[in-house]
Each structure stands twice: as structure tokens, then as C-alpha cells.
Amino acid sequence: QAKGAGKNTLRFFEPQMQASMSARVALQTDLRQAIYLKQFSLHYQAQVAEGIGIVGVEALIRWTHPEHGLIPPANFIHIAEETGLILPIGSWVLETACSQLASWANIPVMADLSISVNVSARQFMQVDWVDQVLAIIKNTGANPNLLKLELTESMLAQNTEDIISKMTLLKAHGIGFSLDDFGTGYSSLSYLKLLPMDQLKIDSSFVRDILIDPNDSAIAQMVIGLAKNLGLTVIAEGVETEAQRNALSKLGCYEYQGYLYSKPLPIREFEAFLNRFEKSALQE
Ligand code: C2E
Ligand code: MG
Ligand code: MG
Ligand code: MG
């Protein structure tokens, strides 16, 4: 029965859409097995504070597919969210990042680095989310004061009360919170003051043309002012050039993440980059 019905349904779609739908289904199937087959890895991107150096890293997931090669998160995170696979994937990410954090504790150049981990709404909505995070912290031996969870505006619009209470519990254990891609969602600024946030991340879309588009520069300035007034730190993402960094610095943003310093790197390459960076800073 399925075959005939399927054909009828698919007749209404364009051929390329059929292709993309079956590609999607195939991707879902592969995604289901990716953890067991150890196809995920984390890449680490430096966060640099002016006059201080590398103060943290953002952990970013990578999927190496046996046939399609490296698949960027933009091409599979939404599928993981829709299917619920983001729950096991998200746990794997948090566990891997926390193990990494714990392993740096005794290495002088690494010991003070914070790790930022992206978290999806689906993960946060689980009733036992707080317990899961605390269990991972305990099992890995990671210092919770060095862990930051990155949330996005869109996920905060619903269940605000529940999110605030979970954030408050996690904050009591030292875990920090960063609001990712800030300015791209439709945040109500009034709930921003209710959230126990620690950091705002200026989205890369405002950084890109900060030198040529006065609107982008005005938005960056607004976010920086907002962070100051709410007592939050602020970091800019997607910083690719010195000129962009200088423009941000002039507006009062002193923390940066972007290709200007480094792309997200596999762990060994990140550690090597960090050692080089620290050495060159000492020689300055
Ligand atoms: P995001 O959290 O906003 O991460 C920043 C993205 O900007 C990363 O893309 C990073 O590689 C890219 N980027 C950093 N610096 C520059 C730059 O100077 N120029 C340009 N053009 N791009 C830069 P990536 O790694 O492809 O990740 C995309 C998005 O996927 C992330 O955006 C995040 O929303 C999501 N994501 C990544 N890893 C995870 C994860 O473990 N869990 C969840 N739930 N989402 C994740
Ligand atoms: Mg992020
Ligand atoms: Mg972002
Ligand atoms: Mg983004």
C-alpha cells in the first residue's frame, strides 16, 4: 500500500524536492547511528579578551559522514531537533566538552579556560535537565564555574518561568549562561532582565558590515550598552578583521571570537594554537 500512496503524494512535489526529502530521510537514518559509530567530534574556537589573551573556547559539533564527508551543524542540527535525536547528541556534546574541561584542569595554559556549549530548547525542556547536567559535571569532574551554556533568544520566548527556574538552579552550582546570536531573534527586552544571564553574544551578522553599515554599528552599540546596563559581559562573534575588532573595541566590546584569531579547530590543533598564541603573547 505504501508504495502507491507514496507515489501519489510525491506527485505533487517537484523532482528536486523529492530528492531532498529522501535525502532528509537518509540523513535521519544516518544521524540515528552517528553516535554509536563515533562520527561526531567537537571543534574548539578561541575566545579572546583584549589585553588578556584566550579566556575561553566555544565547542562546536562536527559530523564526519562516511560518504558525504564533513557535514556542518547547520545541515543537521535542525533535523536532530525535529526528531528528538538532539537529546542523545546534546548529552554527548556536553559530556565530551566537560571531559575536555576536566582534562585541562592541571595544564597551566589551559586551566583557566571556560568552555561554552550550545544547548537546544528540546534539551532544556526535559524535566530532568538540571539533574542530567549536574550528573555530567560530577562524572567528568569538570569545574562548573568554567562551563557556560549558550541559549538562543527563540528558545526563551516560551516556558520562560520553567527556563528561569532551571537556569537559577544551574547557576547556583556555578554554571554560566550566554545568549547566543543576540539581536537576531525577536526578544522582548523586558524578559531579558528576568533571566539570570551572564553574557550576550553579538551576532556575526552585525559584525560583518560594522564598518560600512551604520545600522549594524548602531545595533552593536545598543547590545553593548544593554549588556553594560544589565551587568552582563559581551562578546562579538564572527570577527574576521582587525578593523572589525577595532570598531567593536571603540564601542566598548573587548571580547572577540572569529577567524581573525582562529577557526574552530580539532582538539590537538586547538591546543597547539593555544600554546603558540601564549608564547607569542609572552614575547610581545
Ligand atoms: P553559533 O553557536 O552561533 O556558532 C558560531 C558559528 O559561527 C560557528 O559555525 C562558527 O564556526 C562560525 N564562525 C566563527 N567565527 C567565524 C568567522 O569569523 N566568520 C564566519 N563566517 N563564521 C564564523 P558552525 O560551527 O558551523 O555552527 C553553526 C551553528 O550550529 C552554531 O552557531 C550553533 O547554533 C549550532 N551548533 C554547533 N554545535 C552545536 C551543538 O553542539 N549543539 C547545538 N544544539 N547546536 C550546535
Ligand atoms: Mg554558539
Ligand atoms: Mg552565535
Ligand atoms: Mg550563529
UniProtKB/TrEMBL annotation:
<protein>
    <submittedName>
        <fullName>EAL domain-containing protein</fullName>
    </submittedName>
</protein>
<feature type="domain" description="EAL">
    <location>
        <begin position="24"/>
        <end position="278"/>
    </location>
</feature>
